[in-house]
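[Automated response] Your request has been received and processed.

Submitted sequence:
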Amino acid sequence: MVAKITKYWRISRLLAEYPTAVEILLENDIPCAGCNGASTERLNEGLASHGLSEEEIDAIVTQINQELAKEEAKQAKENLNNIEKLKFHEIEGYSQLENGLKISSAAIAAFLKYQTAEDTLSIKLEAGGCSGYNYKYEFSKEAGAKQVKFQITPELYVYLDAFTIESSNKLIIDYKESLQFTGFVFENEKAKQKCSCGKSMGF
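Generated structure:
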């Protein structure tokens, strides 16, 4: 398990980002949410002021992280169940996932040119590029971690994960040909900034 918080977090940040952590503090008779110093004190400082040792402080931080991991796993399972219900539908020159993601007929035709019988298209939004994120697309013989397989057309399938789907409800994937450029274009209206290369974006 990767720790989400450390004892050096400010109490105000902990309660703002993970409000359910207050329940664990109360279980340990530590009413930090109501302390005057909650807005400025770090977690280890606040806990130490209640007489807790370093070992006891570390134990509470571990308990908080364990509970956060359980919440995250539960939410991920719910998200996966909801995502698996989504389907693509043909709408005016596009195949559109029910959350809003669109793939143009030109892009579908281009993907099919590169697809082999053993491979499935994989599209993933991942960290990278000078603006924070970019779309990675490739053909794969099996799904990546947490990816779900969707049918775009009878001939074309795609692997997508929850993060990519949730961040791409305003995404249009197209394929363009011109003297200056030929290739796939990913236009996401949710992007607040874009790199001059046209591939990296920030949200």
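Summary generated for your ticket: The chain has a mean pLDDT of 87. Residues 11-78 form one domain.
If you did not submit this request, please reply to this message.
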